[in-house]
Amino acid sequence: MSVIKLGKAQFRFSVGPWNLHPGADPFGPTVREEFSWEKKLQIFKEIGFDAIQFHDDDVCPADLNPAETSARVKAMRKQLKDLGLAAEFVAPRLWEHPNTIDGGWTANDATMRKYATDRSKRCIDIALELGTKKIVLWPAREGTYIREAKDPFESYKRYRDYLNALLNHDASIQILGEMKPNEPMDAMYMPSPGHFLAMGATTVDPKRVGVLIESAHSMLLGVDPSEDFALCMALGKLWGVHLNDQDGLKYDQDKSFGAVNLRRAFNQVWVLARGGFGTKGEYVGLDVKAMRTQKQDVSMRHLANSLQIFKDLCEKVERVDEAKVAGFRSSRDYEALELYVVQLLLGK
């Protein structure tokens, strides 16, 4: 897909391989066949994505030796290059390993914390060889099921020590925290982007610590994602987004972007456009899942639909009369402003 230019923004798009999946959920098994890796890349390219989001074990298994790892990474980089795709980031997938049952870098067991740090350093090496300097941290099990399970003071110290270890491992990387208020843990340490940025400010190199914001994670906090986007862009810290939608304060649903609340989606596009997102190489990422009812041959429509909705909302943002909006704000006539926005979305 060619770059979409809107206001000061330049939009290119990324997707992760987990967004094409066989439909298993906590209450039922798979319902359709898994696509091969090659087929997934082909589908992503045909839909119009520019880059791929990776976990470390999407690139190669976590237990390969350094030589085997390097060979697999080189092969992956060539595969991407041949298709005209880039790697957006690599994230250490710590939460699925037996060593991280009690968390990774906040685990009570020092041996498990060392595993998390060592694997994350290996993830950095993979990312650099794959051609990206962005490391995303989703702290899936960095929290507790009950508050008394971990000493919070010690846990925050461990958090900082872990970030510093990664920053010291390579002087060029950027760390993007993808914060989430709950699930799979009941109580997550630092559940918001602001929490993570506060911690990042105390590390050995704060300028290399930023955030990736997923729409649904803001919604699960009861916050409009566009407000989180705007704050972090104002601070120069919004280095990635994962767009999706969410129907209430439930589990993380990963619905197609704009499918639940079109006005909320409009405001996300409007803020990204006004803030000049993408001009420093950032991607508009999707994290959306197909409904379990979808058959395999149409199980990629949620991706195409989300991109189409984003593009359609770009057209709505282009039609915004900023002078009229300013007038409504100046006169404090917010009822008129609301009608203006709703009618814009209705095509009037």
Outline the low-pLDDT stretches: none
CATH superfamily membership: Divalent-metal-dependent TIM barrel enzymes
Please name the CATH architecture: Alpha-Beta Barrel
Please report the total strand number as a whole number. 12
**Class derived from helix and strand content:** alpha/beta
Q: At the third CATH level, what is the topology name?
A: TIM Barrel
Q: Distance between termini?
A: 29 Å
Question: What share of the residues does DSSP label as strand, in percent?
Answer: 5-15%
The major beta sheet can be summarized as: 8 strands, parallel
Which CATH first-tier class would you pick? Alpha Beta
Quick one: overall form? Answer: globular
On the 0 to 100 scale, the average pLDDT is 97
Counted by DSSP, the helix tally is 12
H/E element order: EEEHEHHEHEEHEEHEHHEHEHHH
Q: Could you say how many structural domains there are in total?
A: 1
